[in-house]
Amino acid sequence: xxxxxxxxxxxxxxxxxxxxxxxxxxxxxxxxxxxxxxxxxxxxxxxxxxxxxxxxxxxxxxxxxxxxxxxxxxxxxxxxxxxxxxxxxxxxxxxxxxxxxxxxxxxxxxxxxxxxxxxxxxxxxxxxxxxxxxxxxxxxxxxxxxxxxxxxxxxxxxxxxxxxxxxxxxxxxxxxxxxxxxxxxxxxxxxxxxxxxxxxxxxxxxxxxxxxxxxxxxxxxxxxxxxxxxxxxxxxxxxxxxxxxxxxxxxxxxxxxxxxxxxxxxxxxxxxxxxxxxxxxxxxxxxxxxxxxxxxxxxxxxxxxxxxxxxxxxxxxxxxxxxxxxxxxxxxxxxxxxxxxxxxxxxxxxxxxxxxxxxxxxxxxxxxxxxxxxxxxxxxxxxxxxxxxxxxxxxxxxxxxxxxxxxxxxxxxxxxxxxxxxxxxxxxxxxxxxxxxxxxxxxxxxxxxxxxxxxxxxxxxxxxxxxxxxxxxxxxxxx
Length: 479
Prior knowledge:
With 479 residues, the protein is an alpha/beta fold. The protein folds into two domains: 4-294, HUPs (Rossmann fold, 3-Layer(aba) Sandwich); 344-467, Orthogonal Bundle (Isoleucyl-tRNA Synthetase, Domain 1), CATH 1.10.730.10. It is elongated. It has a six-stranded parallel sheet, with helices on both faces. A four-stranded antiparallel sheet has the order 5-4-6-8. Strands 9-11-10 form a three-stranded antiparallel sheet. Strand 4 (118-128) and strand 5 (133-135) form a beta hairpin. Helices cover 48% and strands 15% of the residues.
């Protein structure tokens, strides 16, 4: 029986081109969406762009562009990832500048205010434009934000609206006490520790004169909504909330039966599993069923940076190697929860060994035998996924699932070497044809398991099987 499955990535900030770290999150989420669709689930898969805030406003001005034109340009680049990365056809794309999102963010504000959780006060403190967040002096490293060591924090003193996060300490601890609400487990413990240290109310607006690019605060046109309060609401505005209550309840779930799964980077725990959940509680809405946190992509053991010259451009890789090659590497060679190192040298080694000499060579060998010795295509049928594939995917361990698939690829390759069907057909035609037919069926099963991970490659292999033809070179070897 079909069941609703809701999955969302975070929304990347549109102040730079798409990077490989976000490609990791998108690809992992896409594999899960495709996997659940193939299992018969009713899918709502969401991504989009975060387009408000001081950083965007300043960057547009720096480039001499109108702010809306600037975000339109970058939103188009991120929307283009759907085709370039071979993403799920039904993927939804929400922009925080969409009118429906603006209306939803203002409704979220009103509901939190009605519950008594929004108040106004004068605040004095440090603000990091890079994070679009207030920071404490105790968090500074050499007087700078640890996440943006070249960006000096702003000293701000102004009257803003605040969200009463401190009122939700016990409720958040109760929420976080449920095993599985955060994956991996150590991130759940990290969130619990953060809450137990004590929660402080946080600013959710800026004076409009100082930060004009954002959603207006309801009933106060002198203030602009804080970018995080605005952007987090995308997870439900994409469902048509608050107007489309049926769609919201179907996919987001109810308070007693939450259904939503979010994917995010490891630096998002405070925002996704604490601030966002408190906002939902305040508005009387269901909390997120589960947030899955992945690690960062490093290069040569260092954080990627233009000054170091180690930035990996995912679109350049797709241009040269194809989307499935990048999807494969991010799924198998990037750890689902820990930081992972990505260099072009490592990528090329994996590409040649596992794709060109692996599945590419295997599909060619099997289908060359079939085309030469079988008079008609082998009839294949869907075989239920084995637990060796489903269990790791259900745990978000794409790398483990791919290890299993590649063990089947290697086993079939070794079987060809051991049985030598090209010799058997010369001695016993029927026995040889039977042997080759079994190999085609095993290739079809491998192809079936590859479908959510390497969709374009999977399509080419099954088309070759149905045509009883050797496929064109799936992954040309690169020197």
